[in-house]
Amino acid sequence: MDDIFFYLSKTLWKIFSLDNLFVVFLCLILFLLLSGKIRKATQIMSFLVLCTLTLTILPVADWMLYPLETRYQHNPELPEKVDGIIVLGGSIIAESSKEWQQLETNEFHERLSSFIELAKAYPQARLVFSGGSANLEQGHPTEAMIAESYFLQSGISAERLIIENRARNTEENVTFSKRLLKPQPDETWVMITTAFHIPRAMGVFCKQNWKVIPYPVDHHTLPSKLYKADFSLLEHANQLVLASHEWMGLLAYYAAGKTNSLLPEQCNYSN
């Protein structure tokens, strides 16, 4: 079932990703024009133009991301003793890193830098990176391969570092890491991931009864500019793809029973 969910979710996202849908609608308009259905083509084109203008002027994506980024406390106060720190994959571009023989990351790099900072702050904590390959094709390099080398070069000792290299998505991050680490109920764990991804990740941790303190990083919204209009189509469009992907992920995880609520918040752990 996990394989089915993985392949189905990746395939559906490729189909229904908003940037791909935009191209599909353009092709549909061209087809309608060539077929002589001018009125229908005009209606769809008008809809696309209206959406594009709205997206250009207003930070629609920020309105979608902000509720996710603020669902959990940012800069949480951590206890004096932390038994383990786990960072979820998603920040390393593994294929580029392998080909260029150096670390290549995306906009989620703060997952890695925050992990290193907390590792220094808690020298006794176990350190875990979880991330395989989310590529649909087999044989691609994993994030874990690159992360391990990077963390060791950053001064983290090999004795402390634990690498989970099989996970392809958030649920598998939790499942495989829990099997590997066997965390105890009385242990204190900190979980690092991107702020808007925290609710979905926490939903899976709660579902699997693993107590963690969420540590959100690399926020994508600016509260002071949530209601300020500007003209930035590409920036807003990129944010909208991120936001729609996360909301679709929340819906898919809830529908598949991988989380107990659509917008996870407080956990009810069993003893």
Task: Tell me what you see in this structure.
This protein has helices at 2-16, 18-34, 38-57, 60-69, 94-100, 110-121, 143-153, 170-181, 198-207, 233-255, and strands at 84-88, 126-130, 161-164, 189-194, 213-217. By secondary structure, the chain is of the alpha/beta class. It has two domains: 2-68 and 231-254, no CATH class; 81-219, HUPs (Rossmann fold, 3-Layer(aba) Sandwich), CATH 3.40.50.620. The protein has a five-stranded parallel sheet with strand order 3-2-1-4-5, sandwiched between helices. α4 crosses α10 (233-255). The longest helix is centred in the C-terminal third of the chain and has 23 residues, at 233-255. The protein starts with a helix and ends in a 16-residue tail after the last helix.
Name of the top-level CATH class of the largest domain: Alpha Beta
Terminal-residue CA separation: 27 Å
Radius of gyration: 21 Å
* The CATH architecture of the largest domain: 3-Layer(aba) Sandwich
* Tally of discrete structural domains: 2
Count of DSSP H/I helices: 10
CATH superfamily of the largest domain: HUPs
| Quantity of strands, as a count | 5
- Calculate the mean pLDDT score and round it: 92
User: What's the order of the H and E elements?
Assistant: HHHHEHHEHEHEHEH
- Quickly give the structural class: alpha/beta
- Helical fraction: 40-55%
What composes the largest sheet? 5 strands, parallel
Low-pLDDT residue intervals, each spanning 5 or more residues: none
Task: Assign an overall shape.
Answer: globular
